[in-house]
Description:
Shape: globular
CATH topology of the largest domain: Thymidylate Synthase, Chain A
Order of helices and strands: HEEHHHHHHHEEHEEEHEHEE
Number of helices: 11
CATH class of the largest domain: Alpha Beta
Largest sheet: 6 strands, mixed
EC number: 2.1.1.45
Active site: 201, 201 (nucleophile)
Strand order of the largest sheet: 1-2-8-7-6-5
Radius of gyration: 20 Å
Family: Belongs to the thymidylate synthase family. Bacterial-type ThyA subfamily.
Number of strands: 10
GO cellular component, one term: cytosol
Main location: cytoplasm
CATH superfamily of the largest domain: Thymidylate synthase/dCMP hydroxymethylase domain
Amino acid sequence: MSVNEQQYLDLCRHVLADGEKKSDRTNTGTYSVFGAQMRFDLAEGFPLLTTKKVNIRLIVSELLWFIHGDTNIRYLLQHNNNIWNEWAFKRWVESNDYTGPDMTDFGNRSLVDAGFNTLYKEQMAIFKQRILEDDAFMAQYGDLGPVYGKQWRHWQTSRGETIDQLKDVIESLKTNPDSRRHIVTAWNPEDVPSNMALPPCHALFQFYVANGKLSCQLYQRSADIFLGVPFNIASYSLLVHLIANEVGLEVGEFIHTLGDAHIYQNHLTQVEEQLSREMYNLPEIHITEGKSLFDLTVDDITLVGYESHPPIKAPIAV
Length: 318
């Protein structure tokens, strides 16, 4: 039995049993607790959930997208990754350039209206094709604003300078491993209210070195437990592996600290189904040796020994 995955399942049970019923920005409604923490010993295995299938290729391509400093969804679509589409699509259908069918509240309407769902899929397919083929359209509607990659790699200062937080942390880990300043933040108070498609949920992370091992703690201000958190766990655990590989350390722990940890009210059935399933053993992650972090491609990162239950679909709140 995986101690790592059990923590996640226990968090689900805790929120279902003790969570406060709250409204939210999407008007979906949640059950929420404030302040939770999970600790994942990466020596036990790679903490990709086994009680439902989680697509590692989506996690890998998204993380490399962040690491490259990219904020446009074209790269993701080129790797068949659709997890950021809705936020970019929302910008297009709410613009004056959009002339198609009314897409208001498309996330919820597509779930309950089969006719509308067909229209939505048609418009999304048009949108994705234009992002891939039309450079001008891609530049205007594919970019999500100064989200994670921009903040990690190209933080803009008030003096007009640029800070590469990720490279600076890597250099600091190599030259001063005992520092308490190995921090990367995506929460930029100047950019949050301006042009971000979605203010950063995983807001700040800090590395820590002890006994030749690299650990990382993430503070996540808002945590969609069913859909988002499984990705966040795997993504930041992968980041620990990648950074450890870059600086010549073994992997230690990933500590996941959550602010508002919530289950959406339209995910309750899915969570109950997942909780009814037995866990499998955790897989392992393999990384191509001899390549810089910044030169890695999706083909350089492979998952070995992953056995899981089938995926469980659920609507995303946009």
